[in-house]
Amino acid sequence: MSDMVDHLIAQIITLHVKLQACRERLAVNTDSEALHDLRTTVRRLRSLVRPLRGLPGVEQLENAAKAMGTLTTPLRDGEVLGAALIAQGFEQAGRRRLQGRGPSYASVARSPQLTRLLAMVDTFPAFMRSADRDGLIQALDKRIEKRLRKQWRKLAEALQDPDHDRHRLRLLIKRARYADEAYPQFGHASKNLRRTLKRAQGDLGDWHDRLQWLLQAQQHADLAVCIGRWQHELEEAERRSDSTLDALGDALAHRKPGQ
Q1: pTM strictly above 0.70
Q2: Among 91, 114, 174, 234, which residue's beta carbon has the most beta carbons within 10 A?
Q3: Do 252 and 159 touch, CB atoms closer than 8 A?
Q4: Per-residue pLDDT tens listing for the chain (259 residues)
């Protein structure tokens, strides 16, 4: 096998172990970070396999990972909102949104979506070995490199758009950041760029949270008292993210040739 196939299989096995650990943590409700860790691991998996599109088993694996995201997003959103309400002094409203987390976690742990994803991740190394033996993987390094470059170009172009969509930028930044972590051997990002990517993701995450909370406040009377505060925080997050996105755009514009 090529070094790249070895790298992919090692990454897949590591992610499989992490997914299994998250499932067990969710099943017995050991800690409040289990769901977040599950979602982050699934996101890393998607970033790892996205450049492999067209190879055997990749589309099915991507679909299974996407289904997990769809399943867990409402539960994670409730977690984040509940914790924020408690931190801001609205204990009752926060506790109300965190009620039933144990059964909900257990439901995710035994869900057909997670069962399917784990089964596919478990068998994916065999798909890779088989494809490699059969000569179906040609110039894998070049294939991955080309697709990673395309991701960086999309992000750079989106940052230069004066009417940029923060939702889309948030997605593109996540993809670039996790893909860089999945394939460090290509050296697409300097330490400074990685730090800026992380900061931009965090700032846009703060903005996205407030936007979602304000939408929730339109439907739930007990959140009305938070509207003024969240609107102010939304505006602050917008200003902060705009500054960080400008820095990210400059960092991308000054990347070394070939990156």
Answers
A1: yes
A2: 114
A3: yes
A4: 588 999 999 999 999 999 999 999 999 998 889 999 999 999 999 999 999 998 888 999 999 999 999 999 999 999 999 999 999 999 999 999 999 888 999 999 999 999 999 999 999 999 888 888 887 787 888 989 999 999 999 999 999 988 889 999 999 999 999 999 999 999 889 899 999 999 999 999 999 999 999 999 999 999 999 999 999 999 999 999 999 999 999 999 877 645 5
